[in-house]
Structures are given as C-alpha cells and as structure tokens.
Amino acid sequence: MADKPWETKIAKSSPEETLIRGYDLLELVQNKNFTQTIFLVLKGELPTKEEENMLNAILVACIDHGIAPPSVVATRTVLSGGNPLNTAVGAGVLTLGDAHGGAIEKCAKLLQDIINEEFDLKEFIENAVKNKVRLPGYGHKIYKDADPRTTALLKIAKENGFYGKHVEAALAVEKTLEETKGKKLIMNVDGAIAAIISEMGFDYRLGKGFFIISRIVGLTAHAHEEMDEKPFRRLDSSLYQYIGKEKRDI
Fold it and tell me: Mind listing the domains of the chain with CATH numbers?
C-alpha cells in the first residue's frame, strides 16, 4: 500500500497556474501588497483593512533592534567567517528562541489559557515569582518604564479594534506581576504582539513566525553590511577575560 501523499491547503503549483490559498498568484502580484499576502498565507483569507494595518505595524516593530542582539551577532560573525548570505542569515534565525523573539509564542499561549480560564492568574503569578520562573513577554534589558514599541502597538490595536480581552489579560498580568514582585516588569514588544495576535485569532504556535518574518529583513541588511568589513571578526581582548588556572606543568 502506497504512503498517503502530503496534503496542503496553502498553495498549488502547475504549468497552468499557481494558487495561493485559492487565489491566482499573478492576480495577487498585481493587486495585493506583501503584508496582505502574508496574512493570507498564514490565516487562509485576505485581511480586512484593520487586520492589514495591525499586521503591518507588528512586522515593522520587529524589523531590527540594533547590532547587539544574538541574532545579529550570529549573522555577522558567520558571514565574517567566509560563509554566504543565506548561511549567515540562517545562523541568525537559529538564535531566535525563548529569550529572543520566542517569547511571543509562549506569552500568546499563556494569555489564551487565561481567557479560557484554565488557571487562576494571581495564584499562577505568585507561584512563578516564588519559583523564580520568568514570565514570557515581560521585562526588558533596555526598557524599564515602558517599551515604546509596546506603547505604539497598543495604540494601533485600539485604533483598529484589536484592544480586547487578550490585551486586557496581558495588562492584568503586568499589574499582578508588579503587585506580587514589588517591582515593575514591563510588557515588552513580545508580550504586546502575543496579546494582539491572540485578538486577531491566530494560533499561538505562529508566535515565533511573526518575529522571524520581520527580523529576517534586518538580518539580511546586517549580513550585507558585514560584507564590506574585513573577514574573520573576533572579540577585542578588552571584551573577554581568561579566568582559568595559570600555566602549570604536566
């Protein structure tokens, strides 16, 4: 018995036509922009104007955040080792995990569970603080009072009708966390995006995807810029320190 063929609802390609979620690719090329088509591919339907505005803002917010994040350091380091652009950008994408971009997914799952009343919020946060568990989507190394990207995204969410129960849950987590911990841990851009994509009805498992789609543009730019640098980047001696044993005899 032959194996069951792979099935997909996303795209169909033949000599006669290419369909993306049922729409002719050439018609999309001529009539829709990239943000609209990203929404179509991920959600299955073309977005409303409000959905387009919101997704576009999310993608812009994540496009780059300087040379220091792990994904950029990895991209530029791998490029400097003599590798092609795709390898360097791929290395940068591989650094995106729970501590860098990946918090969107876990925070979206948390917020959707809160809405579904799968646990008591106050008890959950008290246990998290007691056990020193880091809550995804909260806190930032640079921003202490507020993440300006969060502020901007929540404003756009309110303007476009995506400031609902998931956003309110995200703000409740921030408030309860501060009350429990006695210290403010701001909702960062990952937390804001997690709340908004939940409002938009996206599966939380797409969380990392939104960050990857956006940040890969910045990584490509960094890889291209690194091409003009001398190869074989290495840390300056002032940036590292040997703390092992002194020289000793065998």
Answer: 8-47 (no CATH), 48-232 (1.10.230.10)
